[in-house]
Amino acid sequence: MSIPSAPVAVPPIVVSRARGDRVVPVWRNELGGLTFRAEPLEGAPRYIKWGPLQNETSMAAEAERLEWAVRYAAVPRVIEHGSDATHEWLVTAALTGESAVAPHWVARPAAAVVAVGRGLRALHETLPVGDCPFEWGVESRIANAAGRGIHLPESLRKAPDADKLVVCHGDACCPNTLIDGAGKWSGHVDLGALGVADRWADIAVASMSTEWNYGPGWEDALIDAYGVKPDRERIAYYRDLWNAT
């Protein structure tokens, strides 16, 4: 996953969804998907996600989750979702701030990891578990993996007892937190796997991603900003589960 550094061919469906606005590529994922910012001459920008249909994640699932979560938290408002025989797309309104891995924040990792940790805690405290219709617990993740032909080792089939159930982001890697100009978290994006699970399922992945994005030494700083002590057993389990699925 990365910010594109070379010219990107804009798919025709993205051109049509941009409706004449300037289109800027802002993200490429490992599944071949692209995200573009559509910049009108007047008014607010929009974001257009485009990618191949596949069974690991679904933009339809993300649209459904965003439409639920936007009532409670700073997440993108869905404008449009669609698909054809091979690809799908999702158009959302822009939020304030920029990704925690924008060059400005990569150069300031101490500030970025604090914003990500605090933002994740705020998301967990804001989204209501009792009203959430989506599941991201271990059993559902194992079943999803099996449906994709991934057979997990026995060591991953029994999770540690849950510490605290929350509505997890589902992909809490640092790029998916937005930070405003004052250095405070301002929103969350890419919530296609959002659902109820132990909070360590998110914390483990968010802290692990600090090394990919900022280099070694920032994991515990993010956990401290979240407001808990590192739970090494749960961290190890949920990182192994993440990497295996």
UniProtKB/TrEMBL annotation:
TM segment ranges: none
Aminoglycoside phosphotransferase domain mapped to chain residues: 55-237
Keywords (A to Z) from UniProt: Antibiotic resistance, ATP-binding, Kinase, Nucleotide-binding, Transferase
Similarity comment text for this entry: Belongs to the aminoglycoside phosphotransferase family.
Protein name, UniProt field: Aminoglycoside 3'-phosphotransferase
Organism taxonomic ancestry: Bacteria, Bacillati, Actinomycetota, Actinomycetes, Micrococcales
